[in-house]
Design goal:
Blueprint (H helix, E strand, L loop, with lengths): L21 H7 L40 H13 L4 E5 L2 H9 L7 E5 L4 H11 L5 E5 L4 H7 L4 E7 L11 H11 L2 E5 L17 E5 L13 E5 L2 H14 L5 H11 L2 H20 L4 E5 L9 H7 L7 E6 L2 H11 L4 E2 L9 E3 L11 H7 L5 E5 L5 H12 L7
Parallel strand pairs: 2-3, 2-4, 4-5, 5-6, 10-11
Antiparallel strand pairs: 1-7, 6-7, 8-9, 9-12, 11-12
Helix pairs in contact: 1-2, 2-8, 3-4, 9-13, 11-13
Bound molecules: pyridoxal-5'-phosphate (PLP).
């Protein structure tokens, strides 16, 4: 199937499922009852290889690195939710990032937003830089800075929105228009919003990327990644790279992500509802200097967030606490229902300290320059009870003002 560089991926483009609403697609896209047994849930096909009809005449699948039925169901489902045509699943979000960066050749250049995910930054700076693929970091809040940073070697523009951990919102439509004008490939890491809140291909992005580890799976029990595009030529190259580089997910993991996706619309609605209410309360609480949440009117890009993510501001809140690192540390140690842990997007609430945890690999001066201060705390709001979450946050915040 996808051995050659000029062949389409094994999974078929979504067809009838595309006419369904988002909630229905989340449950049905890429999946239908098994023809023989009528099994309603897609089978987990563990087989690594598939019997061929005659030499060189395979059935739809031949070898599970190239294509696997359970993975194909997941790939079609994610492609449909992102309103794309071709989906690709990976063994991690970082593997998906790596595959997309492999589209670039030596001496080519890309632009990236200045508070990008730490693992993506590490790939740019410590893997691709050595292969002479260079990256310039730009604050996309000012689109004219993007144009100023374009060189004759620039091929790709990398965007996260909302960003991590500052939750800045970038204007995807404006950036897409600019990329089109300059012939640049626009890649959007849509992990923080999920397709339930924002579909970058509809704004003109060429590639959308996910760590399915986060909201898509949503249950904090799988590491995975995904890529979606509408462009057939790009899809052929990505299919080739997916197979050639080989960082594919197991059928078991594909099944778990498919299962997680079925509740994505419900979960996202609840993440947004709880996060907005908690953000409002946090804004009124002593010890909290600043609340960053795209759904709050005080957010610098609130109007843009409402246009781009009309269903809600997402499930992540960042807080600037009084007392710097000491305040953040005391607060995090006092939490009981929130777990002190990296990652985000699961049904359980998590809290972390970017400066010493997720963003510890970013040099301190650079961290401070973009606004990731020592007093910054990031919360991933789960789907527990609102008052339980609030009780935990407010009791932990009681230790903070005393430190200021
Ligand atoms: C977690 C994350 C990644 C990396 O995904 P893994 O599944 O951990 O490899 C990439 N981008 C964003 C925005 C993330 O949050």
């Amino acid at each position: 199937m996808s051995h050659g560089s000029d062949q389409l991926p094994a999974n078929l483009p979504p067809s009838e499922a595309q006419s369904l609403a988002f909630e229905s697609s989340a449950i049905h896209a890429g999946q239908r009852p098994d023809a023989e047994l009528g099994a309603v849930m897609p089978p987990i096909v563990l087989s690594t290889t598939f019997a061929q009809l005659s030499p060189g005449k395979p059935r739809p699948f031949e070898y599970s690195r190239c294509g696997n039925p359970t993975r194909a169901a997941l790939e079609t489902c994610i492609a449909t939710l992102e309103s794309g045509r071709f989906g690709f699943a990976y063994s991690s979000g970082c593997a998906a990032v790596n595959n997309i960066l492999e589209l670039l050749g030596p001496n080519e250049h890309l632009l990236c937003c200045d508070d990008v995910y730490g693992g993506t930054y590490r790939l740019f700076e410590h893997v691709f830089q050595q292969r002479r693929v260079s990256c310039t970091y730009v604050d996309y809040t000012f689109p004219e800075r993007i144009e100023a940073a374009i060189t004759p070697r620039t091929k790709m523009v990398w965007v996260e929105s909302p960003t991590n951990p500052l939750l800045k919102i970038y204007d995807l439509g404006k950036i897409a228009e600019l990329c089109k004008r300059h012939g640049l490939l626009l890649v959007v890491d849509n992990t923080f919003a999920s397709p339930a809140l924002q579909r970058p291909l509809e704004f003109g992005a060429n590639i959308v990327l996910h760590s399915t580890t986060k909201y898509l799976n949503g249950n904090s029990d799988v590491i995975g990644g995904a890529v979606v595009t509408r462009d057939e030529a790009l899809a052929k190259r990505i299919a080739f790279l997916q197979n050639a580089l080989g960082s594919v997910p197991s059928p078991m993991d594909c099944y778990l992500v498919l299962r997680g996706i079925k509740t994505l619309p419900l979960r996202m609605r609840e993440h947004c509802r709880l996060a907005l209410e908690l953000a409002r309360r946090l804004e009124q609480t002593p010890g909290v200097q600043r609340v960053l949440y795209p759904g709050l009117p005080s957010h610098p890009q609130h109007a843009l967030a409402q246009r781009q993510m009309p269903l809600g501001g997402g499930g992540i809140i960042s807080l600037e606490l009084e007392g710097g690192e000491k305040g953040a540390h005391a607060f995090l140690m006092e939490l009981k229902l929130f777990t002190l842990a990296e990652s985000l997007g699961g049904i359980e609430s998590l809290a972390e300290h970017p400066a010493t945890m997720t963003h510890a690999t970013v040099p301190r001066e650079q961290r401070l320059a973009v606004g990731i201060t020592d007093g910054l705390v990031r919360l991933s709001i789960g789907i527990e009870n609102l008052e339980d979450l609030w009780a935990d946050l407010s009791q932990a915040l009681r230790v903070v003002p005393q430190l200021a």
